[in-house]
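The passage that follows is intended for readers who have already worked through the single-chain material. We present the inputs for a multi-component assembly, then the predicted structure in tokenized form, and finally a short commentary. You are encouraged to pause after the input and sketch how you expect the pieces to fit together before reading on.
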Amino acid sequence: MSSEEISPDPFASIAKGITDSVLEKTGNKIKEWAKELAKRFIDKDYFFVEDDSIIAIAKKQRKKSEFGLFNTYIKDKDKRILFQMGLSLRELEKDKKDFEPLKIRIKNKYGWKGLHFAHFVQNGLFSKYMGSIIEESQTEEIKSKIEYLFENIENTVVFVNNIDNSAQKAKEIITKIYAHSPDTFIISSIGSARVICEETHKLVMKEILSVYNSEIYEKELEGRKIFFLNKIQTTQ
Amino acid sequence: MAKLVSMKEIPHEVKIALLKELGYDSDGVFVLDTKKEKVVDKYINEQILVDNMFIYPGSTIILDNNPLSITSFLEEYGDVL
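Having made your guess, compare it with the prediction:
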């Protein structure tokens, strides 16, 4: 196509290999194309995005059954966004894409609590958590349990790192459990932290064995070891 | 429904000219408003790079193109994309 030619579709004109050097010589054409793009935009024929894969990621998470389940119980906009951010982090991680910038943005907007909740979803813990409560709870009860989990995420979930000291971590967890007495407490780890996580879990269970039982999830989420400590329900 | 156009295919100069047509401006790097101040993404409070924009018609919404802003947009406006 000649640099003087303008296609009825301005996007096609621009996309067909017109180099920056040509554009430098065709300032008027740039304006013409921009005018045409703007017209299509104002007429709502077009919207623009730099990298359409970001939109694809965002739309995909909204169609996932996990989000559908969460959506059944939680209508709060920010909580819904955080849930989708957890799923997006998982997607980026799976595709081996850099998810650190997104984590920073989540933390900047929603604080550590928001980031921990997104991390909770990223690690597949929400589905496991739902599995542990859904059988024995009524709808309203499930809703309040999810709300409680969200509001108290820092007192109900611990992520063990490979630099942690198991004795110190166990002490921290026991203190949280005695202080808040949650129905479910989650200890999660990934990769090389799994050994420390297991040691920590043993020390915790020694202390709380009469009050909590423990379930382990390991095989389903590759590379992750997760303990769900469930409060033993006593009948009166 | 409006058609998605990837701006990866649009030269930098055309993006700036497009912004001007829409009543905005640019210093070559960031999106500027009519007062020559940097436009801030309303969801993440970050300045918007010309080479990483999301522009949606209607009341002309310009955002940084990242998952948090796009998801926040979808929560506010529904599944319009």
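Commentary: Residues 156-236 of chain A form a domain with the Translation Initiation Factor IF3 fold (CATH 3.30.110.20). Residues 1-8 of chain A have pLDDT under 50 and may be disordered. How closely did your sketch match?
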